[in-house]
Amino acid sequence: MNAVSARTALARRPTFVWRALLALGLFFAAALVFPFLPLGDHREFLLQIGFFTLVAGIMALSWDLLARSGQVSLAHAAFYGLGAYGYALMLKAGLPWGAAMPLAALISGLISLLLGTVTMRLSGMYFAIATLAFTEVVRTVIQNLPESVAGGANGLLVPALLGGNSRGQYLLALVLLLLTVGVSLTVRLGRLHHAFAAIRQGEETARVLGVSVVRYKLAAFFLSSVLAALAGVLYAGKTFFISPLDTFSLANSISPLTTSIFGGLYTTLGPILGATVLRVAEELLHNTVKNGYLVVYGLVLMLSILWLPRGIVGLWRRGRHGGDL
Amino acid sequence: MDLFLQTLLNGLLQSGIYALVASGLALSVGVVGIVNFAHGEFLMIGAFLAWAASASLGLDPLLSLPVVALAVFGVGALTYRVSIRHVLLAPELNQMLLTFGLGILLQNLALMLLGGNTRTVSTSYQASSLHLGDLTVGGPKAVAFGFAVLLLGALYFVLYRTSLGRQMRAVAQNRRGAQLIGINVDRMYLLAFGVSCGLAAVAGVLVSVLLFASPTVGLVFALKAFAIIVMAGLGNLTGVLWASVLLGLAEALVQTYVPGGGGWSDAVFFLMIFITLILRSFRGAR
Questions:
Q1: Is the CB of A306 less than 8 angstroms away from the CB of B112?
Q2: Cys-Cys with A60: which of A259, A284, B87, B224 at CB 3.0–4.6 Å?
Q3: Does B87 contact A306 at a Cβ distance shorter than 8 Å?
Q4: Rounded Cα gap, residues A104 and A97, in angstroms
Q5: Nearest-CA neighbor of A261 among A247, A248, A277?
Q6: CA–CA distance, A128 with A70 (Å, rounded to integer)
């Protein structure tokens, strides 16, 4: 990009910011109204779909936060699971849910700092495979610990979040998604954005330019895994039951990544839109083609990589550089 | 002492299959530059084809092996043509996601068409065993190991002793350089990817004899293959062999000597990948 086009991109940015904020505002307004609509007989079911759409949104957006710093992680299931397990174990130890939730997220965040420190020098494939291995190690350890500690392979029962009130659970998930969006926008509009982008595009260069790569990469890891752990807490509180195979499954690492790329990588709106479209499509397919929905899911993923590499968000900003929010 | 030797032998025999799966993956990573997350699914296809041939035609899996290998080579070549080829220059993330998508597609297609049950293939030598002094080896295991060694021998002969293999290694070393001296890079990619899938299918045929065929059987082997090529260094073809042996032995030792070993052997194994990667990164080799 030459200087002139850079300047025009910059000049365009304000309208873009407003447009993206408007889209986000519309999304949240619709999401807020949703549980108060007369949903009829399927109310519980629809609220559940809505809830898991919001959880998928948190997962995808938090994964995207980490990806912005050039770290394509397959450890998201680990932090999701650590959040779920941390929460369940703290409730078992007698903590109130309001304390267990942030504590579980914080512990998950601290563990992510450890992982981030040792994987600091890895990049690309190596990083992805190391994080995948980390997830599997965490899963096997939890699975093989004595049952009295963390339930072993049989899993743990978790008390229902907010006494099982579906609307309350939905609204809590919405608040947490709002928090995630807040973090994402703060990162996007502040200096973190420039630091992350510089590291992603060339770590050596960023270091030479005086960006403290270590600090920023760890910051991305911390933010991302705290949010993923919160999604895990929501999951545990909604399904009442967690098991190592379900919570740490590879699918939980892959779906945030597919969701983000489908929606639009390195944006705030993209992962949320992606989560909504994919979740709703999944439910529709689930009801129409039954077992075949994952086949269609795989196909959609392949086709969107081949023909829509910039995601849904890329559809209406074709040919523009920069200015994505 | 016998237990120790038996453990080592079991580990060694197991490593034959690992080496087959991993060399296939190493070809796709080393030559084409694509980390194929759907590698295990090609193994699964091979296992199911062997099962189908055995169930419907009564063909011994080891006899149907060449046909299965050729068929899956074709599937792999087709996959390369219609999808992989178009993301060769795309960011790494997109390549990963494409093969992820392919894996999800193939696995669930199998699940939809065949159901989640495991299918076993019965052979005449299923229950037989060989005795070497005090050590015993299951018949199928020995046969599978023999086949794996034979095929790996052939693969490495082609790679290191023929003009085709030299061309392929040239492409792996330097794509542009290979193009400049007149090698048809695109064809090499097609061949390498096809052979990579074919090798996975051969491993799948052997797995159908040793274990069973099921839609998810490939995942474990694919993960282990990743571990092996990571230990060997992505794209290092010869390193794959010793890494496979190391992994097979380590796994067998954990299963024999650690209490409740079955469950922990996976953890050991992923810990090995993790530590290898971290150590490599701190030595500065990426």
A1: no
A2: A259
A3: yes
A4: 10
A5: A277
A6: 11
Q: Name the minimum distance, in Å, from the CA of B39 to any CA of chain A.
A: 15
> Within 10 A of B50 (CB to CB), how many other CB atoms are there?
30
> Is residue B208 a contact partner of residue B39, using CB atoms and an 8 Å limit?
no
Q: How many CA atoms lie within 13 A of A210 on its CB side?
A: 0
Helix residue ranges per DSSP H, chain B: 2-27, 39-57, 61-82, 92-114, 139-161, 163-173, 175-180, 185-210, 217-232, 239-257, 261-283
Rounded-to-integer distance, Cα A56 and Cα A252, Å: 9
| Interchain pair B93, A265: CB under 8 A | yes
Distances (CA, A) of B232 to A122, A212, B36, B37, B189: 16, 32, 17, 18, 21
- Asked if residues A278 and A56 have their Cβ atoms less than 8 Å apart, the reply is yes
Q: Distances in Å between the alpha carbon of A284 and those of A30, A46, A277, B71, B206?
A: 20, 12, 11, 35, 39
**CB within 8 Å: B108 and A124:** no
DSSP bridge partners of B144? none
Distances (CA, A) of A31 to A50, A174, A235, B28: 8, 8, 18, 45
Q: Give the number of other CB atoms < 10 A from CB of residue A318.
A: 7
pLDDT in tens, chain B (286 residues): 688 888 888 888 888 899 999 999 999 988 888 888 899 999 999 999 999 998 888 888 888 899 999 999 999 999 999 989 988 888 777 888 889 889 989 988 888 888 777 888 777 777 777 777 777 777 788 888 888 898 899 999 999 999 999 999 898 888 889 989 999 999 999 999 999 999 999 999 998 888 888 888 888 888 888 888 888 877 677 888 888 998 888 888 888 887 766 677 777 778 888 888 888 787 754 4
Find the residue in A nearest to B29 (Cα): A125
φ/ψ of B118, rounded to 5, equals -90, 140
Q: In terms of Cα–Cα distance, which of B84, B67, B103 is closest to B28?
A: B84
Taking the whole predicted model, whether its pTM rises above 0.90 is answered as: no
Q: Which residue has the tokens 């049950």?
A: B117
Task: Return d(Cα A323, Cα A1) in angstroms, integer.
Answer: 13
Closest in B35, B105, B274 to A130, CB measured:
B274
| CB nearest to A305's CB, from B101, B223, B227 | B101
In angstroms, rounded to a whole number, what is the distance separating the alpha carbons of residues A124 and B103? 20
Contact B144, B206 (CB under 8 A): yes
- The 3-state DSSP class for residue B213 equals strand
d(CA A241, CA A237) in angstroms, rounded, equals 8
Contact B99, B34 (CB under 8 A): yes
**Rounded distance, CA A196 to CA A201, Å?**
9
Which of B232, B234, B205, B235 is CA-nearest to residue B221?
B205
Distance CA B226, CA B37 (A): 9
